[in-house]
Amino acid sequence: MIKEKMVKALNRQINEELYSSYLYWSMASYFESINYIGFANWTKIQAEEEYLHARKLYDYLITAGGRVIFESIKAPKSDWSSIEEVFKEILQHEEHITECINELVSLAIEEKDHATNSFLKWFVDEQVEELATVEQIFHEIKMIADSKQGIYLLDKELKARQSTFPVLPA
Fold this sequence. Notes:
With about 170 residues, the protein is mainly alpha-helical. Helices cover about 75% and strands about 0% of the residues. The chain has 5 helices and no strands. The two termini are about 25 Å apart. The mean pLDDT is about 95.
């Protein structure tokens, strides 16, 4: 049986992941409002991934004998001044989520909850990938600065991203 302290922490992380999904949807809406369809595509896929992260945590918590309790999700920001500002915020947000995951792992170790610790390894690895991807895109945005051609090419590249969502059990 999973301990209550871990249940509460996993519930907080579910809320973090759902907020992440809201934030990425808001960013997608911003990008679509300024006709950057590739950037919108990338953030929509991120929004879906964050939702799936919440679902993965939900399913684990139920399987482990815990109960999911939903909290209010704050409204995300909806306007930015530039593509660079959006990706700076994405990078900061992913760094925050990485810290949250690391705190969960630390708690699982502290509680000697080996099952949860093992489960969280996927999230640790996922965050390494997330940060590397966002850092690369942010670097490219800073490198091309205000080049309309550079932004066009990056938007086109991000438009080609396809989702690879796993099939989740019912």
